[in-house]
Amino acid sequence: QVQLVESGGGLVQPGGSLRLSCAASGSIYNIYSMGWYRQAPGKQRDLVAVITSGGSTNYADSVKGRFTISRDNGENTVYLQMHFLKPEDTAVYYCNGFDPVARVDYWGQGTQVTVSS
User: Which of 19, 32, 24 is nearest to 69 (CA)?
Assistant: First the structure.
């Protein structure tokens, strides 16, 4: 089993910045990629950014140039640095870890990000 614990959400004004953290613990040796998804009220959960164990990254078009995903393998933590936040970035952000051996997606409990003046 893998446990993912997010932190760093909150309320920020448009144009502001936040950094989300996701600490992984448990049976993480088979986790290939970790990423962030978000879900706004009444909408589906969508990919924001993902990073593989090798450091390759992929971003949703809506966040390219504003968000940066990174991981600290020594600390088993993945980060999402968010700049130039917009009201449409408001959502619950979920950390995800994918184990291709077990073919299992692990999820954190989610952290709320609200962008509002």
Answer: 19
The beta strands (E) that lie in the chain are given as 2-7, 10-12, 18-26, 33-39, 46-52, 57-59, 67-72, 77-82, 91-99, 104-107, 111-115
Q: Model confidence over 57-111: pLDDT tens digits? A: 999 999 999 999 999 878 789 999 999 999 999 999 999 999 998 899 999 999 9
Contact predicate 30/11, CB 8 Å: no
How confident is the model over 1-36, as pLDDT tens digits? 899 999 999 999 999 999 999 999 887 888 889 999
